[in-house]
Amino acid sequence: MRRTAATLLALTVFTGLPTAAIAAADLQAGKALFATRCASCHHVGRNARAGFGPQLNGIFGRAAGSTPDFQYSEAMRTSKVVWSHDTLRAFIHSPGKLVPGTKMRFWGLSDDKQISDLLAYLQTFK
């Protein structure tokens, strides 16, 4: 319980999201969703590296198309998107709508609760 409270506090401080929004998210569900829908292309954690997609550590506040170890599409490199809770939500919902011409091969995720869970999980990787 102590670790969960500390995690919520850290997420609130570092992401600027209200505690209630983070508390409503299910980190375990986000982890499971990442494992089934994202991990075949993206990595997170201490040994994260680019693979079929870029690694996602520290994605919040990062300019899209900016990690040096991945070859992004021109659309992503020139998109001027900075990854935030809102831009990631829009991208996960419909990648091609936020960044037309992206080479990400993902149709999107329409369930807002699942997206919230996934974003909360990604926020734990600085």
Automatic annotation (TrEMBL):
Q: Which PROSITE patterns match?
A: CYTC
The residues forming a coiled coil are none
Record flagged with keyword Transport: yes
Q: Which UniProt keywords apply?
A: Electron transport, Heme, Iron, Metal-binding, Signal, Transport
Residue span(s) of domain Cytochrome c: 25-126
InterPro entries per the UniProt record, alphabetical: Cyt_c-like_dom, Cyt_c-like_dom_sf, Cyt_c_1A/1B
One of the entry's Gene Ontology molecular-function terms is: metal ion binding
Q: Which Pfam families match?
A: Cytochrom_C
Q: Where are the transmembrane segments?
A: none
SUPFAM superfamilies named among the record's database cross-references: Cytochrome c
Q: List the signal peptide residues.
A: 1-23
Q: What is this protein's record name?
A: Cytochrome c2
Q: What is the lineage of its organism?
A: Bacteria, Pseudomonadati, Pseudomonadota, Betaproteobacteria, Burkholderiales
What's the name of its gene?
cycA
